[in-house]
Fold these 2 entries.
Entry 1:
Amino acid sequence: MEIKWRALINCNGKLGVLRQDHNGCFSGTTRSLELWVLDDVKKLKWLRQIYVLPPLWKNLVANTRLNIVGMTGNGEFVFSPAVLRDPFYILYYNVEKSTIVRVIIQGIGPVSGQEIYTFIDHVEDLKRM
């Protein structure tokens, strides 16, 4: 499997490799997601899954470049814009229901154009030392 333009994700406890578009991101022109899951570590058996994105994807994403953030425990792909925009949002794509939910994150500020890195399952300890 060619490594260029691929993202490693946790796919329900197994190693997942998500193929990205030619520019290393996803966009409104992305029609499907190609996911490879390492099913058997000892035999190096990979399973390939193709998820066709619903038409709503093109309208929601448009010309925005998206990075894959990861996958939730419920099997939803999580995407974030590669560049900070106002409003800032996260997209959740549920492969079983073929639904997309856009969640706007408030409080980021009016800054635009800077690269932003979003992480899934990050927990910060807010206790005072």
Entry 2:
Amino acid sequence: MDSVEIKIDDKPVKAKEGTKILQAALDAEIYIPNLCYIPESELPFGGCRLCYVEIEGRGLVTSCTQPVTEGMVVKTQTPAVKRLRQTAYKLLIAYHDLDCPSCWKRKKCELLRLSAKVKVKAKTPEDFRRLPTEFLPLDETNPFIIYDPNRCILCGKCVWVCTKRNGETFIDFAYRGSNTRLNISSNIPLMEEKCEDCGECVAICPTAALGLKAELAVVEKVSEST
């Protein structure tokens, strides 16, 4: 496959033809915020909208979905790009349960880590206040895994990894709009019947939406003893 040469923030970058801008940037050690991107995925989900960049002469695009072309000039830090990333981040946390201090994944949470990357800070508690939507019950139907829809940002990573491992997905999106959540195609509780309990969906989850019951039990025991 032929390679092309582009510029990202004035830095010459060579990449294989067809490579997405985001991957070309990361390979060149140029960081672009991202949350739902999976390098191995042939069809990027493009759901988090954090990876916006500006292409000279073409405008704003999500870098995970846009392939490189010869002579392309990419800017990753323009005022318009920064505004869009901040808006996208605020939309992600608008439906997220923001009990970060008590969250078991606070030290490994990619969503929390990205707040500094996109420069979104809470000046007052109201700035990060969750929208007044209904809190949904935990799905504990699986013997090994817990799903917390209140912490799910619908990035699609678990859907992808489940499909890759099993050839079909036992996890998928259900409902629409603000009611969207994870479920399996038959619309019964998450992973109640067919899940093989491989744990890959938990490993790839960027937040605390999916967790292993055994690990959570240990965390809870430690918390109670301190």
